[in-house]
Amino acid sequence: MSSGSQHDTFAGAWLRGSTQFFEGVLAANRAALAAFGGRESDDTPAEGALTGAERPGGEVDLTEHRRDALSVGDRVRFTKTLSDADVRAFARSSGDTNPLHLDEGFAERTRFGGRIVHGTLASGLVSAALARLPGLVVYLSQDVEFRNPIGIGDRATAECEIVEDLGEHRYRIATRVTTDDATAIDGEAVVLLDEVDD
Which parts of the chain register pLDDT below 50? Predict the structure, then answer.
């Protein structure tokens, strides 16, 4: 096999794998939005769905409501109880049917001693919090470190604080998801806050 054909084979495999990964991430994000009162997984508005800070299903605390006044230290918190219905909706939408999240008998025999919330669903609380910032929130990046599991029925809070103004309405934001017991997720995001046309 020539080096050219090896390169083509590798490039094709990489492209297929990257495409599958990207499509999985999109499905997971759609499912997280659906679970938090946003859009259904087929991208049509949910019946009676609301937008922005009006969405039901969680408690919101925002220190600044004007896009042009945001600065380092401003923060947003979003709190929600992650229910069995949320987990099952996420599994259906994303295709992640790991029995650790869905089968109590199986999960009891694991190191966790019971079912836990999908990590991507739990990290979706960060997205739900950031969606409450003023303006049109455009995610540019998100780093996530999973530290502790979140159990079914646990109340969790995403805390997001601006730590750097990158200019042109781009911000680096420290992100954390906590429960009463521990920090479940730690990370950092970069977002762009576009103007919203009236």
Answer: 21-22, 25-26, 38-56
- What was the pLDDT predicted at 181? 79
φ, ψ (nearest 5 deg) of residue 134: -70, 140
Strands (E), 1-131: 59-62, 75-81
Cβ distance 142 to 187 under 8 Å?
yes
What domain range is 165 assigned to? Answer: 3-194
What pLDDT, in 10s, does the model give residues 145-158? Answer: 999 999 999 999 99
Type of residue at 166? L
Q: Quick one: which H or E segment has residue 124?
A: helix 119-130
pTM of the predicted model, to two decimals? Answer: 0.70
In the chain, the DSSP E strands lie at 59-62, 75-81, 136-146, 155-167, 170-178, 183-194
Q: What is the CATH number of the domain that holds 64?
A: 3.10.129.10
